[in-house]
Amino acid sequence: MTIKTTLTTALLASTLLAGAASACEITLRSSDTHPDGYPTVEGVKAMAAEVLERTDGRICIEVFPSSQLGEEKDTIEQTQFGVIDMVRASFGSFNDIVPVTQLMSLPYLFTSVDHSHAVLDGPIGEEIAADFEVADLVALAWYDGGARSFYNSERPITSIEDLAGMKFRVMQNDVFVDMMDALGANATPMPYGEVYSSIQTGVIDGAENNFPSYDSSGHAEVAKYFTLDEHLIVPELVAMSRSSWDNLSSEDQTVLREAAQNSSVLQRELWAAQEAASLEKVTAAGSEVITDIDKTPFIEAMAPVYQKYVTTPEAQDLVARIRATE
Q1: Given 111, 183, 213, 230, which is the most exposed site by the fewest CB atoms within 10 A?
Q2: What CATH number should be reported for the domain holding residue 63?
Q3: How far is Cα 206 from Cα 214, in angstroms, rounded to an integer?
Q4: What's the pLDDT tens digit per position in 123-134?
Protein backbone atom coordinates (compact mmCIF):
# COMPACT_ATOMS: atom_id res chain seq x y z
CA MET A 1 0.00 0.00 0.00
CA THR A 2 1.43 3.40 -0.94
CA ILE A 3 1.75 6.36 1.41
CA LYS A 4 -0.82 8.26 -0.63
CA THR A 5 -3.32 5.41 -0.43
CA THR A 6 -2.81 4.99 3.30
CA LEU A 7 -3.25 8.69 3.96
CA THR A 8 -6.39 8.75 1.83
CA THR A 9 -7.76 5.89 3.89
CA ALA A 10 -6.90 7.75 7.08
CA LEU A 11 -8.62 10.89 5.80
CA LEU A 12 -11.77 9.01 4.87
CA ALA A 13 -11.82 7.31 8.25
CA SER A 14 -11.31 10.62 10.04
CA THR A 15 -14.24 12.09 8.13
CA LEU A 16 -16.38 9.09 9.03
CA LEU A 17 -15.35 9.39 12.66
CA ALA A 18 -16.16 13.10 12.77
CA GLY A 19 -19.60 12.44 11.38
CA ALA A 20 -20.46 9.42 13.48
CA ALA A 21 -18.54 9.79 16.75
CA SER A 22 -21.69 9.04 18.71
CA ALA A 23 -21.79 5.57 17.11
CA CYS A 24 -18.49 4.59 18.70
CA GLU A 25 -18.75 2.32 21.70
CA ILE A 26 -15.26 3.36 22.81
CA THR A 27 -13.60 6.69 22.05
CA LEU A 28 -9.90 7.05 22.86
CA ARG A 29 -8.21 10.46 23.01
CA SER A 30 -4.64 10.71 21.72
CA SER A 31 -2.34 13.71 22.24
CA ASP A 32 0.52 15.09 20.13
CA THR A 33 2.45 18.34 20.45
CA HIS A 34 3.11 18.57 16.72
CA PRO A 35 0.77 20.26 14.19
CA ASP A 36 -1.79 18.53 12.04
CA GLY A 37 -0.11 16.95 9.00
CA TYR A 38 3.14 16.22 10.84
CA PRO A 39 4.42 12.63 10.36
CA THR A 40 3.71 11.59 13.95
CA VAL A 41 0.17 12.97 13.80
CA GLU A 42 -0.48 11.27 10.47
CA GLY A 43 0.91 8.04 11.88
CA VAL A 44 -1.59 7.99 14.73
CA LYS A 45 -4.37 8.96 12.30
CA ALA A 46 -3.48 5.94 10.19
CA MET A 47 -3.63 3.80 13.32
CA ALA A 48 -7.06 5.27 14.08
CA ALA A 49 -8.25 4.49 10.56
CA GLU A 50 -7.19 0.84 10.82
CA VAL A 51 -8.73 0.44 14.28
CA LEU A 52 -12.00 2.01 13.11
CA GLU A 53 -12.16 -0.34 10.12
CA ARG A 54 -11.18 -3.52 11.95
CA THR A 55 -13.65 -2.94 14.80
CA ASP A 56 -16.51 -2.00 12.45
CA GLY A 57 -16.67 1.47 13.95
CA ARG A 58 -16.78 0.34 17.60
CA ILE A 59 -13.46 1.93 18.60
CA CYS A 60 -12.63 5.48 17.59
CA ILE A 61 -9.34 7.30 18.24
CA GLU A 62 -9.57 11.09 18.30
CA VAL A 63 -6.20 12.71 17.59
CA PHE A 64 -5.49 16.08 19.23
CA PRO A 65 -2.42 17.72 17.62
CA SER A 66 -0.72 21.07 18.32
CA SER A 67 -0.52 20.58 22.12
CA GLN A 68 -4.30 20.95 22.43
CA LEU A 69 -4.25 18.69 25.48
CA GLY A 70 -0.97 20.05 26.86
CA GLU A 71 2.79 19.82 26.42
CA GLU A 72 4.49 16.42 26.35
CA LYS A 73 5.40 16.14 30.04
CA ASP A 74 1.87 17.08 31.08
CA THR A 75 0.16 14.73 28.64
CA ILE A 76 2.39 11.81 29.64
CA GLU A 77 1.30 12.30 33.24
CA GLN A 78 -2.33 12.55 32.17
CA THR A 79 -1.93 9.32 30.22
CA GLN A 80 -0.45 7.58 33.24
CA PHE A 81 -3.55 8.50 35.24
CA GLY A 82 -5.98 7.65 32.44
CA VAL A 83 -7.15 11.24 31.90
CA ILE A 84 -5.86 10.89 28.33
CA ASP A 85 -5.91 7.47 26.69
CA MET A 86 -2.87 7.76 24.42
CA VAL A 87 0.14 9.98 23.85
CA ARG A 88 2.80 10.28 21.21
CA ALA A 89 5.99 11.61 22.79
CA SER A 90 9.77 11.55 22.62
CA PHE A 91 11.80 9.18 24.78
CA GLY A 92 13.42 12.28 26.24
CA SER A 93 10.19 13.28 27.91
CA PHE A 94 9.93 9.91 29.68
CA ASN A 95 13.36 10.04 31.33
CA ASP A 96 12.05 10.82 34.80
CA ILE A 97 9.52 7.98 34.88
CA VAL A 98 11.02 5.22 32.69
CA PRO A 99 14.76 5.15 33.53
CA VAL A 100 15.81 3.04 30.53
CA THR A 101 14.76 5.87 28.20
CA GLN A 102 17.53 7.94 29.76
CA LEU A 103 20.09 5.48 28.44
CA MET A 104 18.38 5.50 25.05
CA SER A 105 18.77 9.28 25.02
CA LEU A 106 22.55 9.27 25.41
CA PRO A 107 24.40 11.39 22.85
CA TYR A 108 25.91 9.46 19.94
CA LEU A 109 24.56 6.13 21.22
CA PHE A 110 23.12 5.31 17.80
CA THR A 111 25.30 5.57 14.74
CA SER A 112 22.34 6.24 12.45
CA VAL A 113 18.57 6.28 12.31
CA ASP A 114 18.62 2.84 10.68
CA HIS A 115 20.67 1.59 13.62
CA SER A 116 18.02 2.85 16.06
CA HIS A 117 15.32 1.04 14.06
CA ALA A 118 17.27 -2.22 14.21
CA VAL A 119 17.60 -1.91 17.99
CA LEU A 120 13.97 -1.06 18.71
CA ASP A 121 12.47 -3.57 16.29
CA GLY A 122 14.35 -6.44 17.93
CA PRO A 123 14.66 -8.05 21.37
CA ILE A 124 15.99 -4.88 22.99
CA GLY A 125 12.83 -3.05 21.96
CA GLU A 126 10.72 -5.73 23.68
CA GLU A 127 12.72 -5.27 26.88
CA ILE A 128 12.23 -1.52 26.78
CA ALA A 129 8.50 -1.86 26.20
CA ALA A 130 8.23 -3.97 29.36
CA ASP A 131 9.81 -1.16 31.38
CA PHE A 132 7.00 1.22 30.42
CA GLU A 133 4.42 -1.01 32.10
CA VAL A 134 5.90 -0.22 35.52
CA ALA A 135 4.87 3.40 34.87
CA ASP A 136 1.28 2.39 34.01
CA LEU A 137 1.94 2.84 30.29
CA VAL A 138 1.71 0.40 27.40
CA ALA A 139 4.23 1.01 24.61
CA LEU A 140 2.42 0.31 21.34
CA ALA A 141 4.78 1.46 18.60
CA TRP A 142 8.20 3.01 18.06
CA TYR A 143 8.17 6.13 15.89
CA ASP A 144 11.04 7.89 14.15
CA GLY A 145 12.16 11.21 15.60
CA GLY A 146 15.10 11.62 13.27
CA ALA A 147 18.46 13.00 14.36
CA ARG A 148 18.68 16.13 16.49
CA SER A 149 21.23 18.82 15.68
CA PHE A 150 22.03 22.35 16.89
CA TYR A 151 20.61 25.54 15.43
CA ASN A 152 21.06 29.11 16.58
CA SER A 153 20.65 32.77 15.73
CA GLU A 154 24.23 33.90 16.36
CA ARG A 155 26.83 32.12 14.23
CA PRO A 156 27.71 28.94 12.34
CA ILE A 157 28.91 26.16 14.63
CA THR A 158 31.78 24.28 13.01
CA SER A 159 33.69 23.17 16.10
CA ILE A 160 33.06 22.41 19.76
CA GLU A 161 34.69 25.73 20.65
CA ASP A 162 31.89 27.59 18.85
CA LEU A 163 29.40 26.32 21.45
CA ALA A 164 31.20 27.92 24.39
CA GLY A 165 28.87 30.10 26.47
CA MET A 166 25.91 29.81 24.12
CA LYS A 167 22.43 29.25 25.59
CA PHE A 168 20.45 26.37 24.09
CA ARG A 169 16.97 25.12 24.87
CA VAL A 170 16.85 21.44 25.67
CA MET A 171 14.04 19.15 26.74
CA GLN A 172 13.45 18.99 30.46
CA ASN A 173 15.70 16.08 31.43
CA ASP A 174 19.09 15.71 33.06
CA VAL A 175 20.86 13.89 30.22
CA PHE A 176 20.38 16.77 27.80
CA VAL A 177 21.43 19.33 30.42
CA ASP A 178 24.60 17.38 31.14
CA MET A 179 25.28 17.00 27.42
CA MET A 180 25.28 20.77 26.98
CA ASP A 181 27.52 21.26 30.03
CA ALA A 182 30.00 18.76 28.61
CA LEU A 183 30.06 20.74 25.36
CA GLY A 184 30.71 24.02 27.16
CA ALA A 185 27.29 25.51 26.44
CA ASN A 186 24.47 26.56 28.79
CA ALA A 187 21.35 24.40 28.87
CA THR A 188 17.98 26.10 29.29
CA PRO A 189 15.17 23.57 29.76
CA MET A 190 11.80 24.92 28.64
CA PRO A 191 8.57 23.75 26.98
CA TYR A 192 8.72 23.35 23.21
CA GLY A 193 6.04 26.00 22.68
CA GLU A 194 8.21 28.72 24.22
CA VAL A 195 11.28 28.24 22.01
CA TYR A 196 10.34 30.56 19.13
CA SER A 197 9.73 33.64 21.26
CA SER A 198 12.73 32.87 23.47
CA ILE A 199 15.09 32.84 20.48
CA GLN A 200 13.40 35.91 19.02
CA THR A 201 13.83 37.90 22.23
CA GLY A 202 17.34 36.66 23.00
CA VAL A 203 16.45 34.65 26.09
CA ILE A 204 18.27 31.76 24.40
CA ASP A 205 20.60 31.64 21.40
CA GLY A 206 19.17 28.50 19.90
CA ALA A 207 17.89 24.97 20.37
CA GLU A 208 18.47 21.45 19.07
CA ASN A 209 16.07 19.39 17.02
CA ASN A 210 15.52 17.74 13.65
CA PHE A 211 14.76 19.34 10.29
CA PRO A 212 10.96 18.83 10.31
CA SER A 213 10.64 20.38 13.78
CA TYR A 214 13.02 23.20 12.88
CA ASP A 215 10.84 23.88 9.84
CA SER A 216 7.28 23.33 11.11
CA SER A 217 7.84 25.24 14.36
CA GLY A 218 9.02 28.34 12.51
CA HIS A 219 12.33 28.25 14.37
CA ALA A 220 14.16 28.56 11.04
CA GLU A 221 12.79 32.10 10.84
CA VAL A 222 14.67 33.21 13.96
CA ALA A 223 17.66 30.83 14.01
CA LYS A 224 19.33 30.69 10.60
CA TYR A 225 22.36 28.55 11.43
CA PHE A 226 21.80 24.77 11.48
CA THR A 227 24.75 22.50 12.25
CA LEU A 228 24.18 18.89 11.18
CA ASP A 229 26.08 17.22 14.03
CA GLU A 230 23.30 14.67 14.77
CA HIS A 231 24.24 14.42 18.44
CA LEU A 232 20.98 12.77 19.47
CA ILE A 233 18.89 10.12 17.78
CA VAL A 234 16.07 9.92 20.29
CA PRO A 235 13.27 7.46 19.51
CA GLU A 236 9.62 8.36 19.94
CA LEU A 237 6.66 6.19 20.75
CA VAL A 238 2.91 5.87 20.97
CA ALA A 239 1.97 4.87 24.51
CA MET A 240 -1.40 4.03 26.00
CA SER A 241 -2.72 4.39 29.51
CA ARG A 242 -2.64 1.09 31.37
CA SER A 243 -6.14 1.69 32.73
CA SER A 244 -7.54 2.38 29.25
CA TRP A 245 -5.72 -0.68 27.90
CA ASP A 246 -7.09 -2.94 30.62
CA ASN A 247 -10.64 -1.85 29.76
CA LEU A 248 -10.27 -3.41 26.29
CA SER A 249 -10.85 -7.02 25.42
CA SER A 250 -7.83 -9.09 24.44
CA GLU A 251 -9.09 -9.10 20.86
CA ASP A 252 -9.31 -5.30 20.78
CA GLN A 253 -5.88 -5.02 22.39
CA THR A 254 -4.48 -7.11 19.54
CA VAL A 255 -6.14 -4.83 16.98
CA LEU A 256 -4.70 -1.71 18.61
CA ARG A 257 -1.21 -3.12 18.91
CA GLU A 258 -1.13 -4.36 15.31
CA ALA A 259 -2.56 -1.09 14.01
CA ALA A 260 0.01 0.88 15.98
CA GLN A 261 2.88 -1.20 14.63
CA ASN A 262 1.56 -0.84 11.08
CA SER A 263 1.35 2.91 11.59
CA SER A 264 5.02 2.91 12.57
CA VAL A 265 6.00 1.71 9.09
CA LEU A 266 4.04 4.55 7.53
CA GLN A 267 5.31 7.13 10.01
CA ARG A 268 8.92 6.29 9.23
CA GLU A 269 8.29 6.65 5.50
CA LEU A 270 6.54 9.95 6.01
CA TRP A 271 9.34 11.11 8.27
CA ALA A 272 12.04 10.45 5.66
CA ALA A 273 10.02 12.34 3.06
CA GLN A 274 9.38 15.22 5.48
CA GLU A 275 13.06 15.51 6.35
CA ALA A 276 14.01 15.90 2.70
CA ALA A 277 11.23 18.42 2.08
CA SER A 278 12.06 20.43 5.22
CA LEU A 279 15.75 20.58 4.36
CA GLU A 280 14.92 21.90 0.90
CA LYS A 281 12.46 24.45 2.32
CA VAL A 282 14.68 25.95 5.03
CA THR A 283 17.67 26.10 2.70
CA ALA A 284 15.61 27.95 0.09
CA ALA A 285 14.43 30.37 2.81
CA GLY A 286 17.99 31.32 3.71
CA SER A 287 19.07 28.95 6.46
CA GLU A 288 22.73 27.98 6.41
CA VAL A 289 23.18 24.24 6.94
CA ILE A 290 26.68 23.39 8.16
CA THR A 291 27.72 19.84 7.26
CA ASP A 292 31.53 20.17 7.30
CA ILE A 293 32.11 19.30 10.95
CA ASP A 294 34.46 16.93 12.76
CA LYS A 295 32.28 15.05 15.25
CA THR A 296 35.18 13.39 17.03
CA PRO A 297 35.76 16.14 19.67
CA PHE A 298 32.01 16.24 20.34
CA ILE A 299 31.89 12.47 20.88
CA GLU A 300 34.99 12.50 23.09
CA ALA A 301 33.45 15.26 25.23
CA MET A 302 30.60 12.89 26.15
CA ALA A 303 32.84 10.67 28.32
CA PRO A 304 31.68 12.24 31.62
CA VAL A 305 28.04 11.93 30.54
CA TYR A 306 28.42 8.19 29.97
CA GLN A 307 30.33 7.83 33.23
CA LYS A 308 27.46 9.48 35.08
CA TYR A 309 24.56 7.55 33.54
CA VAL A 310 26.01 4.18 32.52
CA THR A 311 26.91 3.06 36.01
CA THR A 312 25.41 -0.37 36.61
CA PRO A 313 26.43 -3.65 34.98
CA GLU A 314 22.93 -3.88 33.47
CA ALA A 315 23.23 -0.43 31.88
CA GLN A 316 26.70 -1.16 30.60
CA ASP A 317 25.45 -4.42 29.10
CA LEU A 318 22.52 -2.65 27.39
CA VAL A 319 24.77 0.02 25.88
CA ALA A 320 27.17 -2.67 24.67
CA ARG A 321 24.32 -4.69 23.10
CA ILE A 322 22.93 -1.58 21.41
CA ARG A 323 26.32 -0.75 19.93
CA ALA A 324 26.72 -4.36 18.76
CA THR A 325 23.34 -4.41 16.99
CA GLU A 326 23.54 -4.26 13.22
Answers
A1: 111
A2: 3.40.190.170
A3: 11
A4: 999 999 999 999
